[in-house]
Amino acid sequence: MASRKRGMRRGLTAYGDEEFSLFLRKAFIKAMGYSDDALERPVVGITNTYSGFNACHRTVPELIEAVKRGVMLAGGLPVEFPTITLHESFAHPTSMYLRNLMAIDTEEMIRAQPLDAVVLIGGCDKTVPALLMGAASANLPAIALVTGPMLTGDHHGERLGACTDCRRFWARYRAGEIGAGEINAVNAKLAPSAGTCMVMGTASTMALCTEALGMMLPGGACIPAVMSERMRHAEASGARAVALAKERLTPDKIMTPDAFENALRVLLAAGGSTNAIVHLAAMAGRLGIAIDLDRFDRMGRETPVLADLKPTGQHYMEDLEKAGGLVTILRELKPLLKLKALTVTGKTLGENIAAAPPGWKQDVVQPFRKPIFKEGGIAVLRGNLAPGGAIIKQSAMDPRLARHEGRAVVFESLEDLAGRIDDPGLDVHAGDILVLKGAGPKGAPGMPEAGYIPIPRKLARTGVKDMVRISDARMSGTAYGAIVLHVTPESAIGGPLALVNNGDRIRLDVPARRLELLVPGTELEARRRRWKKPRPRKEDARGYRKLFLESVTQADRGCDFEFLAGEATIRIPR
Ligand code: FES
């Protein structure tokens, strides 16, 4: 039966003669030196996301070797194959713009090749979501393996980490507190080893969420990239992939609504990156599961921040690893978790927690009753400025700005922002609200991490550290500030953000979850009638950019492509 075919017999090239197709395939694969015995084994694919531009994936070659060892010890045949890789600083205009392309590449290569299971190696922010989006749609047994966080650096006795401290030191440099010599010295210390950013940024958050989702072996999220334990974890992941192939444990059995709820709880309790909500929405969307932002906000009211990691707290990922890793958070959250959710171990999340070694005294994860922040890290805002929702990282901002009304200082685009933010003549005061338009999924395009609008230099130099900032952009998970993000619908498609003028009053009320533009409805209607769609750019007319602009959804649906969501998913026969 076609649906039961395994290994080299899967997905044969169509010549109208299956035996000939297999004969031909074996002839070519034997050029790699494989024996007939090897070719009869379950085939485990290993995604190779190494690139000379991706320092976060520097250790991928050695991880591949460790995964291969695990696959072979378990009786499988490991075969690595390349997929796109994305690094935050080397993906113009923004890595988010290319995340869906990586997801398509991953999905189609999993589907195209004769695999029985796949090990997904990623780490840098967009790579883990892209790999899981692709794997969810292909629905072949899959297991995620992250490269792991970097170790911390040191500058004059002060511990440093990418990239919360990148922003902190850059803000000090902009404010004139440190000079060019010192900022250059710091530059060489912020990313001192291979691995992903070691604060609770997007990469760390997605690693924790992936483990909580059940798609990673327990303990895998926090082991630093350069530790030998990371290699043993990779070996175990390879071995487990062989078992997954035999058990036919596919992502749709693991990535269930309950599993996503667990991942969202961990996102809240970790004080994790705002980007994770977009990525989890996209991953869930692949399985026809919608993330309800209002439900997420209600979860936030009952899920406190427990992890004391930058940018919300003090510590770094290697400290969380020393504190026991994710399970230390899971134990505290246990009453709120869906413990029956299945994981790649073949056991439930509850069974995995019970099987973990007992905890010990540590100060990185706080007890549920003595949290770092009494609510979850992220709050969902609604109001006439964001009818489709907006979010704010309430655990990483000046709490005095949680209720704030101010005058809007508007930047019409990223170019406008770059051109005027440091203009000494800019009419801006510390109590104003900075508004950026044109930075959403379609507007920029790709929804860059431009939501962290810099404090105007003239205010920074007077000691202003935080201001309310509002945009349809995203923000790095490593950033800190009273920053309202993901305003939906975005300004480029005529969302209310497009109607804000300089001098308008805006009211932010985080405890009440409100974001209001204090302009009469009649005036807003008149502005709406006068509003003109941004003129298309020359480069919008062809290629991936055209596909992106035509198909990308808004932030609340994960910025995935419309046609890749669950309803359109083609499943591998099984
Ligand atoms: Fe890759 Fe931060 S740049 S994880």
Compact description:
By secondary structure, this protein is α/β, with parallel strands linked by helices. It has helices spanning 18-29, 36-39, 60-73, 95-112, 127-138, 164-174, 180-187, 202-213, 228-247, 251-254, 257-269, 275-286, 293-302, 317-322, 326-333, 349-355, 414-420, 457-460, 521-530, 543-551, and strands spanning 43-48, 77-82, 117-122, 142-146, 153-155, 158-160, 378-381, 390-393, 403-411, 433-436, 468-471, 483-485, 505-509, 514-517.
Q: What is the CATH third-level topology name of the domain at 378-538?
A: Glucose Oxidase, domain 1
Order of strands, widest sheet: 7-8-12-11-10-9-13-14
Decide which structural class fits the backbone.
alpha/beta
CATH superfamily of the domain at 378-538: IlvD/EDD C-terminal domain-like
Which regions contain 5 or more consecutive residues with pLDDT less than 50?
none
Number-wise, the strands total: 14
CATH architecture level-2 label of the domain at 378-538: 3-Layer(bba) Sandwich
Number of helices: 20
Question: Which small molecules are bound?
Answer: FE2/S2 (inorganic) cluster
Bin the helical content: 25-40%
> In CATH's first tier, which class of the domain at 378-538 applies?
Alpha Beta
Task: Report the biggest beta sheet as strand number plus sense, adding barrel if it closes.
Answer: 8 strands, mixed
> How far is it from the N-terminal to the C-terminal residue, by CA?
10 Å
Strand content: 5-15%
Rough outline:
globular
**If you average the pLDDT, what whole number results?**
95
Q: Radius of gyration over alpha carbons?
A: 24 Å
